[in-house]
What does this fold into?
Amino acid sequence: DAGVTQSPTHLIKTRGQQVTLRCSPKSGHDTVSWYQQALGQGPQFIFQYYEEEERQRGNFPDRFSGHQFPNYSSELNVNALWLGDSALYLCASSLAGPGRLGYTFGSGTRLTVV
Amino acid sequence: QQQVKQSPQSLIVQKGGIPIINCAYENTAFDYFPWYQQFPGKGPALLIAIRPDVSEKKEGRFTISFNKSAKQFSLHIMDSQPGDSATYFCAASMSQGGSEKLVFGKGTKLTVNP
It folds into this structure.
């Protein structure tokens, strides 16, 4: 049973460019959340998608946007990249509902902005 | 109020020792407290979680102690092994309209020497 799959694993971009990161959730999961993890820090919540809608958003600027597809996979887009956007971007999937089955995280995409 | 404070930042123990990692929170609306383990190059993996109506939970060598009145919780690792060397994150969450996000501490880098 495949877990959460993220692509690409590593990416180098130039300031001002745009980037798209991709995530396939764990089989059976319908909710995707994105987190940014700066070096030496804990992950910070960016946003969550469920039924193709953004359900909750953290304290990130509008340069960060996302999308969820009918097959539950998701994309994270970042426009006008800053040096400070360099981080590990983690996708986590879960199953919506009253029970808390917990998140499953992918291994992340390491984004370096130069 | 959304912060989770984690200490220590790093911890070194000998094999067989019992490392203890502490976390504190402010927001009493948090109602789910998971601990994650992260190895280099990997995403966080759920270790163990507790709800505030329970004061202690054990799973294998991992124990969470929870003090609701003090708004503190801690992770104890019994009989620690070199393979436990990793970064540990505490987190807290609350359900908002069927959605939840995790608020992470900054992490504790644990080294278990042989």
Notes: Chain A has a mean pLDDT of 93. The interface with chain B takes residues 4, 33, 35, 40-45, 48, 50, 55-56, 58, 90, 92, 96, 100, 102-108 of chain A (CB under 8 Å). DSSP finds no helices and eleven strands in chain A. Residues 36 and 89 of chain A are 5 Å apart (CA to CA).
